[in-house]
Each structure stands twice: as structure tokens, then as C-alpha cells.
Amino acid sequence: MAAFSGRRALFSVCHSLRLQQRFRIIPLQPASTRLTRRNCSGSDGSNAPKLPSSTENESLLENLNHLGVDVKMARQRQPGVLRKALTNELAVAQFLLGKGASRKVIASIVSRYPRAITRSIAHLEQRWQLWRNVFNTDAEIVSILDRSPESFFRSSDNENLEKNITFLTSLGLNSKDLHRLLTTAPRTFSNSLDLNKQMVEFLEDIYEELGGNDPQEFAKSVISKNLYILIRSTKRVRANIENLKTSLKLSNPELLRLLKGNGADILDLSNEYFKKNLNSLEQKLSSLGCKKDDLKELIMNYPSILFIGPSTLNCKLDCLLKGGITIKQILEKPKVLDYSTQNITERLKELRRVGYDFKKKGINILDSSSKRFAAKIEKLSAAPEE
Question: Both ends of the chain: CA-CA distance in Å?
């Protein structure tokens, strides 16, 4: 019954009997550009012949329109696909429908990444199975394709994908880690195996240079904490490590402690953004009477502060200070900076209303969930005045 419903849903995207018949074609075969006979010629379509450079394939455009594809967007994204004589759009649509994707999702995928229609079904089946070795359901994969079609369709090298999965597993990354990588930074698996090995070896070398004694565990730790690290350059990561060490005058043990902890999160920041935020933070703290050691301790305890742009950070600090909180309290509890300026402003207003004394009770209340904060305010409002 489910299969029958799927076929009906598929056929409904076409308005003619000929197009319905074309949907049933899965095997690839050489053909002309006629609607009922066009299919891709290879596993990735890279060798498919093209029409004259200025000519788009009219029967392809007709099929894409019937599938609900935004042809204008597809033309902007990858115009060369629309000039191919051999493509596989209808079989790819059928394949995705069979995996649970809706017609709307399929149209969106092809609109944003037209090259998807150059893949053969044999290639897609193999790739899908490799992804299913990481994910529990087809629905999870469809969700990722809907968000980032490039992550699945960009590479035609299934062997490389399999090698990357094997390599990352050999580092000690578990299925949960691989799941997060594929979900958050899928380009990791499109990297060549050698490129991923290069970053891992670089991280291991850094660890040994700093006096560490378990380099593979360190590399695993960094990757699991910073999912983008494998799609950054070793040059960028090294520059950020050197900037941290030089600017904060960190010893090797201190730098190791930072990198093994939450400091791994900031290693993939662009070098310019990293330096700009660090310099701005130092200037702001200096204007508030803080010393170099205060800056060092703040970043050691809360490296994520370097993600916050200068203007945003200054607004948050000024808001807290105007609300009666001291810079010393902020340095001791920097996670209050995780919240938006609007959130901080609203909470300070509520706390003033109930007469909250930050000097006596501290600022932990600002670092709490919305539910807990509301419950605390309700309790304080009901309490008799001292």
C-alpha cells in the first residue's frame, strides 16, 4: 500500500502519459535528448555530452518544471547542468521518493544543487547505504539532504567516502561522532582521505610539540569538540594556536590545557576575526581596569568569548555594568555573556523590579534557563520584603 501511494505521488508530478512512463525508467542507457529516452551516461554524469554552449536542453527544462524545480535558481547555481544532453532527473526523483522525500523536498534539492540529477541510481544506492551505516533511518538522511543537498550529491567518489568513514572510526570516533560530523560538517567526508589525514597528523604533531603523550587521543578530542576542524586549513589552525600562545603568554602546559578543553572550539576561526576579537577584548578589559592576567584567565575559562564580535561584546558588558554588576563578577561568571543583549536587559529589568541584590546574592541567576529564571522571579516576587 505504501509503495502504491508512493507511485501515485510520483506520477502526480507529471501531466502526461509519456512522462509517467519515463518515471519508471531506472537503468541508464545511451539516448538522444528526447523526453522519453534521456538518462545520464555514467556514475556521476561528468562525461555526459553537452549541447552547444548557449543551448539549454528543452526536454530537461520541461521535466524540471513538471517536478516543481525552480529553474531560475538552478540556472543561477549550476547553468552547465541545463545544457547536458544526458541527465537522470526523473529516476533521481523516483529514488528520493522511495526514500521518503516529499515532492517539495525533491524540487528544493534539485533547485539548489542541480548536479544531483547527473548521478546514476547505482551510485546513489551505494552512497545511501554508506550513509545508512552512520544514520539509523532514511528520514535522517532526507533531513540532511533537505538542509544541505551538496553534502550528499557533491562528491561522486563513494570509495573515498568509505575510506574516510573507516579512517575516522580508526581514530576512536564513534557512530555518534560520525553522525554529528555528517550532520554538521558533511564536507569532511568529501575531503580526500589524504587531506583529512594531514589535519590529524598536524594535530598530533602540535600535541607532541607541547609535551603531550597521547597524540591520537588529542586529535580525536579536538575533532569531537570542533566539528569544522577537518574542513579548515592547517595554516589557519596553526596561526590561531600561535596567536593564543603569544598574546596570552601561555606556557606549553597551559596551552595544552586550553586546547584539550573548550579551546578546541575556537581553532577554526578565521585568523583576522580571531585577532580582531582578541585585541578588542583586551582593549575593553584594559579600559575597565583589568590586567593582562585577567584577560588570560578569562580566555582560559571561557574561550568562546572570542566568537563574540567587538560591538556585540561591548554592548553586553556595558549592559551588565549599568545593571549594577561589577567586572569582577563577570570575569568570575563569564557564561552570562552567552545570552543576547536583549535577554540580559530584560532579566536585569525583572531583577530590579523584585529588588535583587547582586552584591549579596551574586549573578548566577543570570545564567539560568528561561524556565528556572521565571520560577525564581515568581518566588522572589512572592517573598515578603526584608
Answer: 70
